[in-house]
Fold each of these.
Amino acid sequence: MRTPLIAGNWKMYKTAAQAQEFVDAVRPHLDGADAADVGICPPFLALPAVVQAAGGSRIQVFAQNMYHADEGAFTGEVSPSMLLAAGAHGAVVGHSERRQHFGETDAALALKVPAALEAGLTPILCIGETQAEREHGETEDKLRHQIQEDLAEVDPDRLAQVVIAYEPIWAIGTGVVATPEQAQEAIAFVRALIAERSREQAEQVRILYGGSVNAENAPELLGLPDVDGALVGGASLKPDSFAAIVATAGG
Ligand code: PEP
C-alpha cells in the first residue's frame, strides 16, 4: 500500500508571517485521520517559519528547489545540508516553472535527485509534457526522456524513495485539469518506466498528479488506481481548500 501525499506548492507566495498564519489555521483540520501524508513547499525565506509552526504536527516541509553541491562558491543557491539543518523533509526539483523560466535542465536534475537522497531528503521530481507535445503525440517520449535522464544516477533499489509528480504543463495554473483518463494513463506509463528498472520499486514509488487540482476535482483524481496524491499549487494557498484536498486523500 502506498501512502498518498498531498503537497502544497506555494510558489512565490507568502511571507514568513503569512506562512505561520496559514499553518496555524490548517493544523486543527489535520488532527484527525492520518491516512495521507501532508507536505507544504514554502519559499525559502518562509521555510523556517513553517517548520516551527508545524512542529509536533504531521506536516512535512519541502523546499521548492535545491542545488546538488553541499557548499561552495554558488551564489544564490541553497544546499541539501542547509535544507536538512533548517528542518526540511525534502525538496521539489524540476518544477516546470523552473525548467521554463530558470533554465533547469535534465542534466542538472540528474545531479540534484541523488544529492537529495544522499542527504536524507525526499525529492519530489516534477515531469510533464507541454500542450504542443501532447497534441503531437509526444507525451510518452517526453516522460520517458525525463525519467531516464533525471533518475539516471539513482540506484534502482532507491527509486521508491523518490516522489514523482506528473504535471502536464498545460494544466498548471490554467484551471484546465487533465481528464481522469489522461492522468491515469500517463501515471501508469511512468510507473511502467520505473518497472523497467525495478518491478518492486515501481509498486512502491509514489506518483502524484499536479495541475489545477482543487477541492472539487480532487475526489475523482485521487480515486484513480495509480495516482498516489497531488502536488497542488493555487488551491494550497488557502487553508480551507488545502485541508479539503487532504481530507479527500484520507487525511
Ligand atoms: C504546481 O504548482 O505544481 C501546480 C500544479 O499548480 P496549480 O495547482 O495551481 O495548477
Note: The chain is about 40% helix and 15% strand.
Amino acid sequence: MLNYAIIAENLTYRYGDLTAVDHINFEVERGEVLGFLGPNGAGKSTTVKMLTGQIRPTEGRATVLSADVSKHASQIQAQIGVAFETSNVYEQMTAVENLKLFARLFGVREFDAEALLEQVGLAGRGNERVAGYSKGMKQRLMIARALVNQPRILFLDEPTDGLDPVSSETIRGIIRQQSENGTTVFLTTHDMVEADKLSRRVAFIDQGKIAALDTPHALKQQYGKRGLKVTVECPDGRLETREVILDREDTAASVHELFANQRVVTVHSEEATLEDIFIRVTGRGLN
Ligand code: ADP
Ligand code: MG
C-alpha cells in the first residue's frame, strides 16, 4: 500500500442517471507518470475531481498518499498540485500576484516566484497582467501555480489541449523534469502520442471504464499487429496499397504472392500506435 501514491477502488460517479465513472480500479505507484487516455466524455475530468477531493465519489473510494480523500481532502490538497483545463487564473492580477495568492492559500511561506516562472518558460514576464497572456502562457502559469507547494503528486487535466507546439513542448519538459525529481504525475490526455512519450503506464478509459492499463510497450506487444504496407502499381498505372500482417501462418505466402504477381513500388514496415490499440480495445477512436 505504501508504494502507491493513488489507489482507486470501485470509484464511481453519477451525474443524475448518467454514470460518468463506473467502478474503476487502479493504482499509481509513487514516482510514476500515469497517462489517463480517453476521448471527450470518457470520464477523465470527473475521475481527477474525485481524486483531488473536489467532488465526492457516488460509490467506491479514492486513497491518495495513504489517506482517504473523502475524509482528508484538505490535508491531501496541501500535498498535491492540480492544473485543470478549465481552472482559472486571475486575469486582472500579475503572474507573481497569482502565485503569491496561491502560496498564501496553501500556507506556503517560502517560495521563489521567479524561479517557478523560469521553470515554465515565463522568466521576466511575472509582473505583467495575466489578461495579456496567450492561452499557452496562461496554461504554463497554471502549472507554475500547481507547483507552488512542491507537490508530491501533480494532477494535470489535458495540459496541452489546444496549445501551440512551443507551449506544449515546454509543458512536456516540465512533466519530464517533475517525474525525474520523483513527483508522481497523473496526466489526462486524448493525445496518444503525448501519452506514449511521457507515461510509464497508460490507462485507456472509455465510457467511464478502464479498458486496459499497462506500459505502452506491453500494450503494443499484446494488441498491436506488426505489418507491412506494400504499394503496388496496377496494370492501368494506378497505385494501390496492400497490407500484409506479420507473424501469421500465411505471411510468407502473402509476401510471395505480392512479389510474384504484382509490380511492387514500395514496402514499409508498420508498428501499431497507441491510437490503433485504443481503437482495437474499445472499438472507438480518440476523437
Ligand atoms: P472527459 O474529461 O473524459 O471529457 P468528463 O469527466 O468531463 O469526461 O465527463 C464524463 C461524462 O459526464 C460526460 O458524458 C459528460 O457529459 C458528463 N458530465 C461531466 N460533467 C457533468 C456535469 N457537471 N453535469 C452532468 N454531466 C456531466
Ligand atoms: Mg475533461
Note: The chain has two domains: 4-215, 225-270.
